[in-house]
Amino acid sequence: MTRDKWAPVALHLLLVWAAMATAVPMLGIALLLAGWGGGFGAAAVALVLGLPLAVGLLAAAGSAARTVVPICGSRGGRLGWAVLVFTLGTLGVLGGLAAYGEGVDLGSAGARFALTGVPYAAAAALFVPDWRVRMTAVAAMAAGVGYGVQ
User: Fold this and answer.
1) Cβ pair 58, 19 in contact under 8 A
2) pLDDT for residue 108 is more than 60
3) How far is CA 56 from the centre of its chain?
4) How far apart are the C-alpha atoms of 36 and 89, rounded to whole Å?
5) Residue 105: its H or E element
6) Residue 20 in contact with residue 32, Cβ under 8 Å?
7) If pLDDT is split at 50, 70 and 90, which confidence band does 89 have?
8) Which of 17, 122, 132, 140 is the most exposed place for a label (fewest CB within 10 A)?
9) What's the predicted TM-score (pTM) here?
10) What is the average pLDDT score of the chain?
């Protein structure tokens, strides 16, 4: 990857991180409040409405990355990319929640909100066609797992 390609990659990953660090906590709070106030049915409605919005937000972020991530060159490719990034990132967030439930210190509430976007950015980095970017994402995930296991 040439030097002038690093800026768009960093911007792409920052955009994915920011979008998901904003959307996922709001989706979680909406699920909690809907479930608390209206039960399982209301939480299911919030989930059915919230998931496509979050994936759509990711797909919009993917449209800005067409030059960085080749799969995002078509509408179907962007949607598939968004679903995969959302799925992998959500698995990372669930792993973080499990670690937090076991007493792993993840910092203040603001830090936890910021950390929410990291698994999504790492998942998005796996689709960048450069081995250094992919290995950095794998190293970041391994460091997170290592921190959670201690």
Assistant:
1) yes
2) yes
3) 13
4) 25
5) none
6) no
7) very high
8) 132
9) 0.87
10) 87
